[in-house]
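User: Fold both of these, please.

Assistant: Here is the first one.
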Amino acid sequence: MFMSQQLTLELSDEIYADLQQKANAVGLSIAEWIVAAISTQANSVSILPAAQQEAARQRFRSHAGAISLGYATGIDNESIDADLAKAYANEYEGSD
């Protein structure tokens, strides 16, 4: 037995017109197009089991600190400005 639920949406005129155009382009009503779009979106989302999520999280974390510049980095503007000035100076010195 097929069960269904009714959902009422309030859309701006701009969004409604956009949906109407998309639905017309494929020969569907707006409601049919929305159901098809939601179904497609829901089917493309896959939830990983907890063990796979944890393994993915560990792989991601393994990259933290993997690159060393040889010196500490921070957000102080003076060292950033000095690095930029040094980089620009090197760029223009070689262009003579």
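And the second sequence with its predicted structure:
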Amino acid sequence: MPDIVTLTINPAVDIFVNVDRVEPTRKLRCSAPKRDPGGGGINVARVAHRLGANVAAIYPIGGAIGKLLQRLVEREGIASVVTPSHVETRENFTAYEKATGEQYRFVLPGSALYRAEWEACLDKLASLPEKPKYVVASGSIPPGVPDDFYAAVVRQAREMGALAVLDTSGAALKAALGDGVMLIKPNLNELGEFAGATLDSDAARIAACRTMITAGHTQAVALTLGADGALLVTAELAWRAAPMQVEVASAVGAGDSFLGGMMAALAKGEGMADAFRMGVAAGSAAVMSPGTELCHEEDVLRLLDAVQIREIEPVLS
């Protein structure tokens, strides 16, 4: 029985290359491409699996790229529950410019799905032979899929007796909140957009998180702050994680790695503070890996003891 089931309605094959310099018009000679499975929920599944969790991933696939995606996911040892799509699965493209160390990320929207195609993913979730502890709905919504799709995922998780975890933004986030979400993982821009305010201090950020919690939108908020660390806020407590000093190779997938680390720890029965610590280690380890590799277990475990978190609610209340 999987402890964690992820649902990714807009999966992708992520392509990563190195290039000397990005310039207009000229042909840019790239390194041999590296391809990884991608999309929010798939990335969460990859990391949670690497950290010892029993995971299954639900996602639609279409065309030759969809078949490649399934092979890439299953090559990592993750059980796939796939549904067919009439359109080719999307690709994303990331180029690392060696001259400057900058990354250029080209993210495609995904092709429109028919109603029967996105409903098939919900049906797969509802018909799982054994029920998971957690259902993680993560990533963007492609054209043709309604904004309340993740709200339907959350409702289904509740009916199954599973805890729902959500990582998306905009209208999809707003539509899903309040249906029994245990945890959401926004970044600062996403939380600020939801709150309709500039959140330029920890006090303002905690207040925005607490507003969502007291309104019944979610039980907890894990707020990633990029190079400034992270916050975890519940109804009673708030923890602050200091930024970690690591050598940055790629920013791709740091947030997904953070959530994957948290989910792996929660699936093992660890408390929220320890899961937060694991998430910070995993997110920090992800930026050390090139391209779209995400974090690796040995890096996460090496960083774990160095993660510094402190309870800050007494200071800010």
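The chain has a mean pLDDT of 93.
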